[in-house]
Automatic annotation (TrEMBL), chain A:
It is a peripheral membrane protein. GO terms for cellular component: AP-3 adaptor complex; axon cytoplasm; endosome membrane; Golgi membrane; presynaptic endosome; terminal bouton. This is AP-3 complex subunit delta-1. Residues 900-920 have a biased composition (Polar residues). InterPro entries: AP3_complex_dsu, AP3D_dom_metazoa, ARM-like, ARM-type_fold, Clathrin/coatomer_adapt-like_N, Mu_AP3. Keywords: Acetylation, Coiled coil, Cytoplasm, Golgi apparatus, Membrane, Phosphoprotein, Protein transport, Repeat, Transport. One of its GO terms (biological process) is synaptic vesicle membrane organization. Residues 622-683, 723-995 are annotated as: Disordered.
From TrEMBL, chain B:
Part of the AP-3 complex, an adaptor-related complex which is not clathrin-associated. The complex is associated with the Golgi region as well as more peripheral structures. It facilitates the budding of vesicles from the Golgi membrane and may be directly involved in trafficking to lysosomes. In concert with the BLOC-1 complex, AP-3 is required to target cargos into vesicles assembled at cell bodies for delivery into neurites and nerve terminals. This is AP complex subunit sigma. It is found in: Cytoplasmic vesicle membrane; Golgi apparatus. Keywords: Cytoplasmic vesicle, Golgi apparatus, Membrane, Protein transport, Transport. GO terms for biological process: Golgi to vacuole transport; intracellular protein transport. One of its GO terms (cellular component) is AP-3 adaptor complex.
Amino acid sequence: MALKIVKGSIDRMFDKNLQDLVRGIRNHKEDEAKYISTCIDEIKQELKQDNIAVKANAVCKLTYLQMLGYDVSWAAFNIVEVMSSSKFTFKRIGYLAASQCFHEGTDVIMLTTNQIRKDLSSPNQYDTGVALTGLSCFVTPDLARDLANDIMTLMSHTKPYIRKKAVLIMYKVFLKYPESLRPAFPRLKEKLEDPDPGVQSAAVNVICELARRNPKNYLSLAPLFFKLMTSSTNNWVLIKIIKLFGALTPLEPRLGKKLIEPLTNLIHSTSAMSLLYECVNTVIAVLISLSSGMPNHSASIQLCVQKLRILIEDSDQNLKYLGLLAMSKILKTHPKSVQSHKDLILQCLDDKDESIRLRALDLLYGMVSKKNLMEIVKKLMLHVDKAEGTTYRDELLTKIIDICSQSNYQYITNFEWYISILVELTRLEGTRHGHLIASQMLDVAIRVKAIRGFAVAQMATLLDNAHLLTGNTQRNGICEVLYAAAWICGEFSEHLEDPMQTLEAMLRPKVATLPGHIQAVYVQNAAKLFATVLQKHEGETDSQAAQETSQLLIDRLPLFVQSANLEVQERASCILQLVKYIQKLQQKNVEVAEEVTALFAGELNPVAPKAQKKVPIPEGLDLDAWINEPPSESESEDEKPKAVFAKEEPKHYRSRNTEVDEKELARRREVRKQEQANNPFYIKASPSSQKVYDAPGVEHIPVVQIDLSVPLKVPGMPMSDQYLKLEEERQQKEKAERKKKEKKKKREKRGKGRKADSGPESEEDITPAQHVDIVTEEMPENALPSDDDDKDPNDPHRALDIDLDKPLADSEKLPVRTHRPEVLKSPAEDRVSESVPPETKKKSSKEKKEKKKDKEKDRKRSKEEKKKKKKHKEVEEELLESQPEEPVQSEETKEAAAPPTSTSAEEVTVPSSAVETSSAAVPESEPDEPKDTEPEDTKSSKHKKKKQKKEKEEKEKKKKKRHHHHHHHGEAGGEDSVQNGTVEEEEPLPPMSNYSVLAENSFIKMMREDAEQVYDIQGNHQDESKVVVSIIFENKSDSFLKSMEFNVLDSLNSKLQRPEGAGPHDGLTVPFQLPPGVSNEARFVFSVQSIVMPQKLKGTLTFIVKSDESSTHEKLDFKLHFTCTSYLITTPCYSDAYAKLLESGDLKGSSLRLEGINMPFHHLLARICFHHHFSVVERIDSCASMYSRSIQGHHVCLLVKTSDQTVSIDAKCDEPSLLGNVLDELKQTFSKC
Amino acid sequence: MIKAILIFNNHGKPRMSKFYEHYTEDTEQQIIRETFHLVSKRDENVCNFLEGGLLIGGSENKLIYRHYATLYFVFCVDSSESELGILDLIQVFVETLDKCFENVCELDLIFHLDKVHNILAEMVMGGMVLETNMSEIITQVEAQGKMEKSETFVFQCPRQDR
């Protein structure tokens, strides 16, 4: 009997399949939850059965319940059981359930690895397919690692059905197991050309997804994709490829140029709107990336805009929406072409579709100008009134504010109008954006001084009518405005016409219903108003009014003293007591106004929102360091055994320690102070920060009178319109005036008048109604520019930023299970594993070499350009490439070993730098001398450096200031001279390096190119000349270096050229960041007045070292040395002109004798040519004449003779001091050989 | 990438949900509710795109939907998908359903959730579009249906014995 019941119940359960469950749920609408819970109980019973069919049925029902929101994770193990059924039907049910509810946290997933592997290699393609589909939803890093190789094998499956699924799932595998990307990539690439279009499409899909996140790694595939784009007919594939190109073009402008033509062809030919749209989108991306590089891109822009207009005008809302979306992309770079469609976009504002209206709003943001701002905003205000639904209205509100406030209120010509708009916006019911309006009011009132009077009047009205705003609890958001109103009225109360009335309005009992923070502002500003009122009545014989005010406060403030809000309470009771005291004084007829006003004296300056963040961390302050080392747990454990051996009282030890510390600290503090005093980067007690904000002469700026008789007191009436009219009138008037003037002009010059008259007036023609100065926001001195848009560290795609062009290394092979050799034995796999190792080695070393060569070539090239001797480039490059690397090093080490024989001429000329104190400079430069000869190669000189470090441990500062003369070895300049001197058959020149180390520390090395590019800007040689200094920054650390700022202390004579608006002590931002091991070159322009003497400039490079855990500020001091030769330009001179020059007798002579020079004469000449920018005019045997010209036009002539290791140089120049210095520098160059 | 595919009826009752990223069941229901809320209040003749809800990925994502009779088909996608392309895909999906169920209606989806999933699996895999060719999709779905039928026959035999 019992058995029968059991059997019957089993039957019943068994009968209830998915359809029954659904039916049941539908029949139990009232008690659905209860019914489902009984069903779940049944399912739990079913899952206990041994019959797999019953289990599968149960799991199937669970899948349905999961969709309804029931947690079914408890059945995970049963799902795995069903997955492992041998029947396809059940397997599919199992995998489906798994794909719906498994995730990385599901622990039974690790049981599935072998089952999935078995299914993947199943002879039935649908078993494999189902496994792949399921896996794509729940793949975990472990599964990805274990199965990557199996899936990779499936990418070459005979059935396209499996191939395309395997290709597609690889993307998920890459995400979870990034190491698999490189080994799998060649095959993935292969699949781009699979015969089956589905597989091809899948491969395109995956690579597009990958490339979208890290486009630069996939640039090398561009030609392949280009081929696909021109050959494929599958719109899906085309769209994907075209989208991918959109991501690639910003990285490679040449690609963009190639794309324009096929894309425009597609635009013209395709009938598929989706394809057309993506083409237009990518063309836009291309044009953005090219921006100005293409001569005829206006045609493409026109084509795009025209096609988009067609889309926007289409009745299909989808096309309209997309058209607007794409239009906004064009707007960013080509606003002019979009602005001509303003009519169309304004029309879209009336569209019934909110998405379209929002898109149109976005477009309007970029389309406003000074001329049309009022008109556009007026239109928007109309929409605000009409709009139903708060979201769209709020969106409108924020848009209006965005549009008006963009780029520092650039387009606002009349701030009174803007204040009126803001006041009108306060009448919006139920907006969430009260705080936005409030902050705008505050911002404008603070920063536009001229508007304060008007703003205060408006705010007073607002306060007076506060009940209208706060009457409804729904309108709570808007009462934020009162916060701003109260503050403005209080802070600028001197502009109030009737402060007493405003004061009264601020102390109404109703105020107590406002939020606490607003009440607090009310109370505080009531006090400010009180001060103003007192001051107004000061000196009047009758003190009645003042006393009445005090009484008013004393009467009303107790209400706030009772406030539940702590802030309100505190402020109110403070002020109440103060007023009571004042009242006492008043009754004794004591004058108090001045004292009370003093409470609120001084003006508040606007501070930039990021100011606090940008305060640079002063040197020596390590924010991460402990001030007091915390007692670590391990220490306390260690201490016990310690006590056994050393039993002295720890107290004593401690105190002694702190004593030392204090002394040490004091000493350090002193040192730091001194250092800071000498360092221009520190803020000293100078009032320099003040001056920026003394907006000069605001008072003198004439403010246009506006008729204020218009009733402002009725807040229900819109009043911004009047400004529109006013503005129109004003513009018309101006226009008329201009026309008058033009007519006059016309009369004067008839021919030219026509051109000026025609056409609409341009932007510049509109003069602002009021002359307003927008006060800039305060920033800390020496604020560092920082980029905040660091990538999200949690982005899974970061891990996929992998260089795919590098050959595979042995270690990168995918893990293969060894006990199943048949998986391993795929032919492709064999190929990979066998051939890779030797290839890698060869290639990588080859690559290195090539890279090096490339680098040198680059340097070479840049220098080449400067010297403008392009015709020799090829020959030189060949020469360069054929030169072995070893000689360079040996040459360098030789030079490094050679001790300096004479002190340089630098010391003599040091005082020319104004800021440098000579006492500091002279001793510093002496120990620096030996370092000058240090070779670039840091390795060879490492131990030497260490020694030096030891010697100068105390003078830590100097260690960094490794300045350089640039009389150094070079590698290419020699050729120049050879060509000049027409000597070809002599022995090859030793290579000469052009770069010398300027300064370095453990993070960065600065190398400076010796042969500066020198040019003068003005025809007048007596004026300033410009010198360009190329500096290579090399990151030596393994951290990321960013926010590099280059600064030098200007001297009277030489100044770093800074961008306009920068102060004389501001640094220049180096326009790049340096990843570990990378070097890059930046150029800095210096203006120099006098060139007859060498110059030394002290400078500092500040930068941020960013490693995984921390980022620290570092700096590196250096000295830039401008020798006199750096002002010389290699200028060819013909011998007859040279002779004439010498004959003219304008030149003063001087001579120099060098002993013990044993180098071939042509080497000597080459050195002079290379290092000192001379050219050989004529050479006869061991005698040569050379010429050079300074940037300011001084001629320098040399006659060089040599005999027996003695070189004599006779020199002539029209500027004796220049000549003297050049000769000294020549001497120095050869003293080092 | 496609982040999620949702089918719900005019009252917001879910008829199928496929999430390609993991969410808890509660979040999934919230997403469905939010999406329904966003989509259902839109007029018939407005565009089929709207900015994504707050729950799925935020502003990066878009909702692309179509409304057929009593059902909403909503795809939540990121910026790598072509808007018009996805609209076409929805059309393909619905037409495929129509072919497989022979005049599909809401009830078909309600009672054959697993079959809908199986059809979808032939079109979209792990959030990426697998196949857009309708006849290819139908071929594969039918081949698997046949396999299932042959197995079901074997499986039903013991039941009849009882």
